[in-house]
């Protein structure tokens, strides 16, 4: 379809144009009605593709000059629309995994996922947030009589890292869609249970949707409500408050008034402590930077099993790169990024979970926290 | 380490065209961070091994489009919360990126790592000369402190005369 711009010069031309519009039922963009077409006034008409040549011929015949204002209306429409509605209609609930979802929808998604996959998925209560919202995790577990080890993954500990909860949702969908057909996944589930917390910092996530897109911390009030937010990834009891933090609430890396001071931190910590003898691997998903980070951030002294940790991480990074060529750096936070204390990953390792990793997903700063939705699919696919 | 002066880094880089990933240029650079006074920008010397692409056509198209606007261009949140940038705003974003590169250079130390996070606001400023001028409020993300730092910059641009940044 094209949109033409015409300025009629004579009354005869106006008449012809009115005639053309009404017989061919053309779509007038300016003015709205044929009777408002006047000589000397701008006219914008949208002409459906099959009629374009006929209309242009007719204008030429009547010596009416025109300009093509929009050569391809569909192209313009496509560019301005949120994309990827089409490729996911086969997903049961119609949930679009290639778009970012507000917390309301993620809650609904969890309920729906459990309903449609009840043989494998159960939703469990973890705790409450500062603003009293409920934290749920999903347990993906194949019924079996043998005891299974656990892999824990949490997303969205930092509010602005939207690609992280998007990944957790994608991960769940991918496992559920493919566990029957993919031998690797089905063997996985025979031996392991997956526990996924799609959004850890729920209050912060909602705040980044409604008020401030680049918010990071939770929403706990300090100093009589004059300052908000503790950095949950500085709030765990791993060398808490020692390095790479601020004691000032106004900082983005405020570690809170004390270790595990935040309800969100406590909810996760209590659960993991309870189950720790069965937890094989702790994963926490962040953005951005493209790193797979191993312990520790609080010291450069390597963890006891650092060779094993590095070996696995390097294999993961290589596999990831095999998909789309995206390169991830691998190593201890204190060496390749910066020093920090109180991180959940350090804490998980310190209490005895042997494999503990932080993933920093795409990108490397071009879009940073505001990663466009067309990168959700490739990011998630390569990370799988 | 250069005693009493600062730390010098010798870099070999590959520059990649943002708009054409296959187009790359090798580059060598020397960066000197000064000791002590943190208010001086690091010294940078560089050599390009090859040529940057000619962008005259795209530059002129953008220039003429903005020149022919009836009202001064104004926009907020580029990209939007979801990461989307409309095609008309893409050159505005690229210009902000260049300007933020200058701001980042002027404010970098060995302990900072800045990235442009978002353009909060941009407003065109009409000029009597041939330059285009834009007032930007940009948000810079600093990796180590994790802070989001707002910065006001005015950017002048002309297809033949390049970019100028005033803070």
Automatic annotation (TrEMBL), chain A:
One of its GO terms (cellular component) is side of membrane. GO terms for molecular function: metallocarboxypeptidase activity; zinc ion binding. It comes from the Eukaryota. The active site is at 360 (proton donor/acceptor). GO terms for biological process: proteolysis. Its cofactor is Zn(2+). It is a lipid-anchor; GPI-anchor. Residues 99-384 form the Peptidase M14 domain. Keywords: Carboxypeptidase, Cell membrane, Disulfide bond, Glycoprotein, GPI-anchor, Hydrolase, Lipoprotein, Membrane, Metal-binding, Metalloprotease, Protease, Signal, Zinc. SUPFAM superfamilies: Protease propeptides/inhibitors, Zn-dependent exopeptidases. InterPro entries: CARBOXYPEPT_ZN_1, M14A-like_propep, M14A_act_pep, Peptidase_M14. It is found in: Apical cell membrane. Carboxypeptidase which preferentially cleaves C-terminal acidic residues from peptides and proteins. Can also cleave C-terminal hydrophobic amino acids, with a preference for small residues over large residues. Belongs to the peptidase M14 family. This is Carboxypeptidase O. It comes from Phaethon lepturus.
UniProtKB/TrEMBL annotation, chain B:
GO terms for molecular function: metalloendopeptidase inhibitor activity. This is Latexin. The keyword Repeat applies. InterPro entries: CYSTATIN_LXN, Cystatin_sf, Latexin. The keyword Repeat applies. Keywords: Protease inhibitor, Repeat. Residues 1-54, 74-167 form the Cystatin LXN-type domain. Belongs to the protease inhibitor I47 (latexin) family. Signal peptide: none annotated. One of its GO terms (cellular component) is extracellular space.
């Amino acid at each position: 379809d094209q949109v033409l711009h015409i300025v009629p010069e004579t009354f005869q031309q106006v008449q012809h144009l009115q005639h053309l519009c009404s017989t061919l039922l053309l779509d007038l963009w300016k003015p709205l009605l044929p009777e408002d077409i006047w000589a000397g006034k701008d006219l914008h008409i949208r002409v459906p593709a099959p009629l374009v040549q006929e209309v242009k011929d007719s204008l030429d015949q009547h010596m009416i000059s025109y300009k093509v204002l929009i050569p391809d209306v569909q192209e313009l429409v496509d560019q301005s629309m949120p994309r990827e509605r089409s490729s996911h209609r086969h997903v049961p609930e119609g949930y679009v995994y290639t778009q970012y979802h507000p917390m309301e929808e993620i809650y609904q998604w969890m309920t729906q996922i459990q309903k449609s996959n009840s043989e494998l998925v159960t939703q469990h209560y973890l705790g409450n947030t500062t603003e009293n919202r409920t934290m749920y995790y999903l347990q993906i577990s194949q019924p079996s009589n043998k005891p299974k080890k656990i892999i824990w993954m949490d997303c969205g500990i930092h509010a602005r890292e939207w690609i992280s909860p998007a990944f957790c949702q994608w991960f769940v969908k991918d496992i559920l869609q493919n566990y029957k057909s993919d031998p690797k996944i089905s063997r996985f589930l025979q031996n392991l249970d997956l526990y996924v917390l799609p959004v850890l910092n729920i209050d912060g996530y909602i705040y980044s949707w409604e008020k401030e897109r680049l918010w990071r911390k939770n929403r706990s009030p300090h100093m009589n409500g004059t300052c908000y937010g503790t950095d949950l990834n500085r709030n765990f009891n791993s060398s808490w408050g020692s390095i790479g933090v601020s004691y000032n609430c106004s900082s983005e890396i405020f570690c809170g008034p004390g270790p595990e001071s935040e309800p969100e931190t406590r909810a996760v910590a209590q659960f993991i402590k309870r189950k720790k003898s069965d937890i094989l691997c702790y994963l926490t998903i962040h953005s951005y930077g493209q790193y797979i980070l191993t312990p520790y951030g609080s010291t450069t002294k390597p963890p006891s099993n650092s060779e094993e940790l590095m070996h696995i991480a390097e294999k993961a990074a290589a596999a990831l790169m095999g998909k789309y060529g995206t390169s991830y750096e691998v190593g201890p936070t204190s060496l390749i990024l910066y020093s920090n204390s109180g991180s959940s990953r350090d804490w998980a390792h310190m209490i005895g979970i042997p494999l503990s990793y932080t993933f920093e997903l795409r990108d490397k700063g071009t879009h940073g926290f505001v990663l466009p939705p067309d990168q959700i699919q490739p990011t998630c696919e390569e990370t799988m | 380490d250069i005693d009493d002066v600062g730390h010098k880094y010798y870099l070999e880089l590959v520059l990649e065209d943002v708009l054409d990933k296959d187009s790359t240029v090798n580059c060598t650079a020397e960066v000197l961070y000064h000791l002590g006074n943190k208010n001086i920008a690091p010294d940078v010397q560089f050599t390009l091994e090859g040529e940057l692409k000619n962008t005259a056509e795209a530059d002129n198209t953008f220039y003429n489009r903005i020149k022919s606007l009836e009202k001064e261009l104004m926009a907020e949140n580029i990209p939007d919360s979801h990461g989307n940038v409309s095609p008309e705003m893409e050159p505005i974003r690229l210009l902000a990126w260049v300007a933020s590169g200058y701001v980042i250079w002027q404010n970098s130390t060995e302990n900072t790592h800045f990235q442009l996070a978002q353009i909060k606001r941009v407003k065109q400023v009409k000029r009597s000369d041939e330059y285009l001028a834009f007032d930007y409020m940009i948000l810079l993300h600093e990796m180590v402190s994790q802070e989001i730092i707002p910065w006001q910059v005015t950017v002048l641009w002309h297809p033949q005369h390049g970019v100028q940044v005033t803070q």
